[in-house]
Batch of 2 targets.
Target 1
Amino acid sequence: MATDSSAPSTADSLSAADRGLTLHHITVRFGGLLALDDVSLRVPPGRTVGIIGPNGAGKTTLFNVICGFVVPQSGTIALDGRPFRPRPHQLTGRGIARTLQGVGQFNGMTVLENVLVGARSRKAEEEAWAALERCGVAEHAAALPASLPYAKRKRVELARALAAKPRILMLDEPAGGLDADEIRWLATLIQEADCTVLLVEHHMDLVMSVCDEILVLDFGKPIALGPPAEIRTDPKVAEAYLGAAA
Ligand SMILES: Nc1ncnc2c1ncn2[C@@H]1O[C@H](COP(=O)(O)OP(=O)(O)OP(=O)(O)O)[C@@H](O)[C@H]1O
């Protein structure tokens, strides 16, 4: 992979085509398994892009590449037109926040302390409270996460990511284990997010309702990329899912 750039570009010096996150020809192998096979994706600022596909398609691996947890064998990433070599400990500083599948809180810390881990500015406490309010869990600030119902813990996870005021919010199966009301709330949160959203999710109604564009992976290969209406009727996509269910 290319090394990271020195100084970030200023927004003014960038052409519209350069802005945002771009993945070029990403390939990842785990031993003999091709987990990502030449995946390219452009994510302009402010868009909500879904990444879907059957189990094992490579969705989480793609997230792990963007976060620097997995280093691809080939391919490059660019952020605002400059080579970007992601490092997990620097992600927040680069404006990228990610939620984990399930709930990933520190159990010895209160809800507020967990969300403060996500906040990054001098106004960290203010940002943490704002994120807790936005996610409807401020009343649980002093509680330990383990004492809360699962759906509330998922909201705390979202609050932790939002407290960083990310420009790119990566949501890894945020609807998993939630009921219909919670999923409706989540859809509104995503639609109202004032940042780019990358969404890995199996809940198709949620994906179709909130995404501007959807990338479909199957056995690591990109098989379709387009707006929800196109993806919904794409025979390759139906075949990938039916094949997985068979
Ligand atoms: N660290 C690893 N070592 C070896 N194989 C891995 C590793 N991580 C993922 N894989 C394999 O790579 C493939 C893609 O996995 P990945 O978790 O990215 O799929 P996914 O689309 O996120 O699946 P799911 O929907 O079940 O979460 C799978 O076959 C998986 O078993």
Target 2
Amino acid sequence: MDVRLENLAVTDILHGVDLHAPAHEVHGIVGPNGSGKSTTLRCVYRALAPSGGVVRLGGRDIAAMKVRDTAGHLAALTQDSRVEFDFTVTEVVAMGRLPHRATPDRDDEVVAGALSRVDASHLAHRGFLSLSGGERQRVLIARALAQEPQVLVLDEPTNHLDISHQLAVLSLVRSLDVTVLAVLHDLNLAAAYCDRLHVLDRGRVVRSGKPDDVLTPEVLREVFHVRAHVVRHPTSGAPQLLFEH
Ligand SMILES: Nc1ncnc2c1ncn2[C@@H]1O[C@H](COP(=O)(O)OP(=O)(O)OP(=O)(O)O)[C@@H](O)[C@H]1O
């Protein structure tokens, strides 16, 4: 299922964002602080109604879809993903099954599988609020996976994760065969794991394309205001940035 943003506007924040993520591709949104990345995602997972433009899932305008219908297709890991009460980890992940009330017989298996994929099976019976920041993040990713979405929207999925779990989570995301729209701050990880990148600057997409075409010294200078050298990763060949201090 593809995701298309057409001339998306949010008053004073987004000024006509166009973006297309074809089905099964991993697309990264990068940009400086305050450029509108989270606001863009919030319009996609319907935490915010845009003041203009359209978000389409599989060609359908999400504003015309029932929220439950959207949740059957799209799961989100967001900056607003919070758990207020001390549910167990299993209970938190099981919340991802809510849009699938028609298949309760599969729920236990799907929840256990999702926890295993994020290396969190050993946490199943712990209280969510007793977990470390990185453990919580992995459990929230498991909750999104338990939703069995066709589209996954991730706002800084590697937040709080140590380097080993950052790589594991992004490899997992790549292996899922779903459409992914992810805000990533680490440009080297974005280059390594995304098919396409979209650079946001002051509420506009100023560059879209393959990491090779987007992560140039000019873009780094003009958008991020840093000087960078672009080198090749010795095994994957992905562009990697070395910053001048
Ligand atoms: N509800 C709101 N009311 C007023 N301003 C807002 C609101 N939400 C976001 N903004 C502003 O809109 C701008 C874009 O915010 P957004 O969170 O989308 O940026 P971002 O690119 O995700 O930033 P960061 O990299 O810092 O997470 C910021 O200047 C922010 O202060």
